[in-house]
From TrEMBL:
<dbReference type="GO" id="GO:0046872">
    <property type="term" value="F:metal ion binding"/>
</dbReference>
<dbReference type="GO" id="GO:0016740">
    <property type="term" value="F:transferase activity"/>
</dbReference>
<feature type="modified residue" description="Phosphohistidine; by HPr">
    <location>
        <position position="76"/>
    </location>
</feature>
<keyword id="KW-0598">Phosphotransferase system</keyword>
<dbReference type="Pfam" id="PF02255">
    <property type="entry name" value="PTS_IIA"/>
</dbReference>
<dbReference type="GO" id="GO:0009401">
    <property type="term" value="P:phosphoenolpyruvate-dependent sugar phosphotransferase system"/>
</dbReference>
<dbReference type="InterPro" id="IPR036542">
    <property type="entry name" value="PTS_IIA_lac/cel_sf"/>
</dbReference>
<protein>
    <submittedName>
        <fullName>PTS lactose/cellobiose transporter subunit IIA</fullName>
    </submittedName>
</protein>
<keyword id="KW-0762">Sugar transport</keyword>
<feature type="active site" description="Tele-phosphohistidine intermediate">
    <location>
        <position position="76"/>
    </location>
</feature>
<dbReference type="InterPro" id="IPR003188">
    <property type="entry name" value="PTS_IIA_lac/cel"/>
</dbReference>
<keyword id="KW-0460">Magnesium</keyword>
<keyword id="KW-0808">Transferase</keyword>
<feature type="binding site">
    <location>
        <position position="79"/>
    </location>
    <ligand>
        <name>Mg(2+)</name>
    </ligand>
</feature>
<keyword id="KW-0479">Metal-binding</keyword>
<keyword id="KW-0813">Transport</keyword>
Length: 104
């Protein structure tokens, strides 16, 4: 496995955890467990940050003149990164919405 594939799998692994935690946060908020939900979102943010760091390393390499070949694995990793980021943002909004519903 080459360096590019290792970075791709690092991104996929981290953002996969982030996505799972964000989904768990939504479920917890639906059950009124808002503290647990918010902790899961914070944990998801940490995994997303790790994914972003790995991705940023690739961008820096390319900016410094290192030629990166097209790779479906990297394309998949980037897709998963953006998907996880979106789900995390939606989780934050759904937690707030569930708080409002529970308080009425």
């Amino acid at each position: 496995m080459d360096e590019l594939e290792l970075v791709a799998f690092e991104i996929i692994s981290n953002v996969g955890m982030a996505k799972s935690l964000a989904m768990e946060a939504i479920r917890e908020s639906r059950n009124g467990n808002f503290e647990v939900a918010e902790k899961k979102v914070e944990e998801a943010k940490g995994f997303l940050l790790e994914g972003h760091h790995a991705h940023s390393g690739l961008i820096q390499d390319e900016a410094n003149g290192k030629k990166l070949e097209f790779s479906l694995i990297i394309m998949h990793a980037e897709d998963q990164l953006m998907s996880a980021e979106t789900i995390k943002d939606l989780a934050i909004e759904l937690i707030e919405m569930n708080k409002e519903i529970k308080n009425k």
